[in-house]
Specification:
single chain; about 300 residues; paralog of FGE (formylglycine-generating enzyme); 2 domains; three-stranded antiparallel beta sheet; 9 helices; about 30% helix; elongated
Length: about 300
């Protein structure tokens, strides 16, 4: 049986989502980077009026219920973009924050165990060798790395691997609790952005490459490098069928206007069709209860 190092996530109450203070922090940080506090009072008011007017539409767009994202900008906002660098970033931060103005909630969690590291190529080799089924192999990413790099597979394969290993995929909330801890940190390591603690690149890194980026429970590689599938399924409004939620941010495209300190916070997630090509999404299993036969020993280092 494949060896997995497990981390105990104790029972307790865990904040999920963004608190009002965290939402305000992101909004103020984006404004500072856009030079907002040097704008004229009239320009600030024009911007705030525009955001207030658009917030409901942005909320509906995020829920897939409305909206043309290409609605022309009013002249005064176009003029702001021409005059000040960073207005695009600020607008995108406000757009993404819009559906999160609903209060965050506290999740009451039972004790569970989660894999310390994302499942690696080497571990998946054991899985594919065990089943020796060419149909399964075709649902795996074309391998450019071996050994201790995160595996990328379709959701179905991630789900099957977790069952084979004696566990299951974590729910989105379980993943978030393991990543952010009982204080609901913005990033696994704390509340201050530090790009040296994660892999921001499209290329993979080993799952143990960033020891300074571990979560409060010493869970590694939860943001950056590759996103991770969860157990949560939802109807796919774009392609039909079902989509699965993933957490830990898929690698950013260069055209994305969101600043890294915003895009890579540990409260965010998205979804993708469960049969989509296995690009940029890995996974890690969890256990609802302790199973001694799977124990490879705790490592608190």
């Amino acid at each position: 049986m494949v060896k997995i190092s497990w981390v105990k996530i104790p029972a307790g109450e865990y904040p999920t989502g963004l608190s009002q203070a965290q939402i305000e922090y992101f909004g103020q940080k984006a404004r500072a980077e856009a030079g907002y506090f040097n704008w004229s009072g009239k320009e600030q008011q024009q911007f705030e009026d525009y955001v207030a007017d658009k917030r409901e539409q942005w909320q509906l767009m995020q829920m897939g219920k409305d909206g043309n994202p290409f609605t022309p900008l009013p002249l005064e906002i176009v003029q702001l973009k021409q005059k000040y660098a960073g207005v695009d970033n600020l607008l995108d931060v406000e757009r993404v924050l819009a559906p999160r103005f609903a209060p965050a909630y506290t999740a009451k969690m039972k004790t569970f165990y989660i894999a310390r590291f994302p499942i690696t190529v080497e571990q998946c080799d054991e899985f594919f060798n065990h089943f020796d089924d060419e149909r399964l192999r075709k649902r795996r990413e074309v391998r450019l790395h071996t050994g201790n790099y995160p595996e990328e597979v379709e959701w179905h394969i991630a789900d099957l691997f977790c069952q084979w290993a004696g566990g299951r995929l974590p729910t989105s909330v379980e993943w978030e609790c393991a990543a952010r801890g009982p204080e609901g940190l913005l990033y696994p390591w704390g509340n201050e952005w530090d790009p040296s603690r994660l892999n921001l690149l499209r290329s993979k890194s080993p799952v143990d490459a960033y020891p300074e980026g571990v979560s409060p429970f010493k869970v590694w590689d939860m943001i950056g490098n590759r996103a991770e599938w969860t157990l949560d399924l939802t109807p796919d409004p774009i392609n039909g069928g079902m989509a699965a939620k993933y957490r830990g941010v898929i690698v950013k495209e260069q055209i994305d206007p969101e600043p890294d300190w915003f895009a890579f916070n540990a409260s965010f997630g998205a979804s993708r069709a469960i049969d989509a090509p296995p690009f940029y999404v890995g996974f890690r299993p969890m256990l609802d209860s302790w199973r001694k036969r799977l124990w490879s020993g705790f490592n608190h280092a």
